[in-house]
Amino acid sequence: MTPAGYALIFGLAFFFVGVCVVAAWLFLEQAPRRKESAPHILQADAVSAIGALAAVLEKIRFTDYLRRLIREADLDWSAGRVVLLMLTAFAVVLALLMRWDFVPWWGAIGVAVAAGSGPLLRVRHIRAKRLERVENQLPEALDFISRALIAGHSLPMSLELLADEIGPPLATELRKAVDEYNLGSSMEQALENFSDRVPSVDIRFFTSAIGTQSRTGGNLHDVLENLAETIRQRGTLKGQIRAMTANGRMTALILATLPFVIGGVMMLVNADLFMVLVRHPVGKTLLFLGLCSQAAAFFVIRKIVDIRV
């Protein structure tokens, strides 16, 4: 195939994905939009710098989910940037795979779809890592707030002192909450927005405890100390579960790499025998299905051993 043919395939793939996005917009433009639970004073994230793309994405409910993921991951990306990366990855991978006779057309589309979801999965991974760091910082933060309350500081002042002392990412979110409070929001509303930006069970417990104490009264110092101890115990339990499931994760890694090791050994011992599988049309299909099955098995095993506490 000539370079012009490859360029044509790339252009058609990109055009096809764009048509699908427009079709989804036309289908979902009448659907009800997700309502925000509360106003965020400091929130000002644009959908896209490209006007036409922003107009399309504003009509799709998936954009709200994508913006929320980006906000929780604390990235300076826009939803339009992620969508363009997804479309570009899909088109590039599809154009490359269509060059190879080794990959059937339906397999090329499937792999291209998986590659197109790569930017979204990357955002989700960054978000998960950030939430994990926040949860690891939270017990120490609760102890700090408890000691500040004993010293006579108010809750807003304690949060401001904590934002100055503790490191990111928790300090970043606490600073936003303090700024919202200073700009006129109530402390309960600022903490509610804080829990929306950091969707963690531990953070929800923290904001609920403060909200309940502000309405009913009680010793907030004791509540925060008990909550910190509970979070530490949950962290210990997570570590124990991770140690117990290490065997399953190692099994998934070995099963994923073993076929490639065996294939390499076969190429060294008897390359002609292995090349029959590569050259034959049925062998190509079976080989590609085997690779897809290996990838699916790897993710299934990882999902099984991913026990949430």
What does this protein look like?
- With 309 residues, the protein is an all-alpha fold.
- It folds into three domains: 3-116, no CATH class; 132-243, Type II secretion system (T2SS), domain F (Receptor-associated Protein, Up-down Bundle); 245-305.
- The N and C termini lie far apart (53 Å).
- It is elongated and about 80 Å long.
- 79% of the residues lie in helices and 0% in strands.
- It has helices at 3-28, 51-57, 61-73, 79-97, 105-116, 118-150, 155-165, 170-182, 187-197, 201-216, 220-244, 246-269, 271-279, 281-305.
- It contains 14 helices and no strands.
- Mean pLDDT is 79; it is low at 28-38.
Individual helix count? 14
Task: Provide the succession of SSEs.
Answer: HHHHHHHHHHHHHH
How many β-strand stretches? 0
Shape label: elongated
Question: In percent, how much strand structure appears in the residues?
Answer: under 5%
What's the gyration radius in Å? 25 Å
Cα end-to-end separation = 53 Å
Mean pLDDT: 79
Structural class: mainly alpha
Query: What level of helicity do the residues show?
Result: over 70%
Sheet of most strands: none
Number of domains: 3
Poorly predicted spans:
28-38
Multimeric status of the protein:
single chain
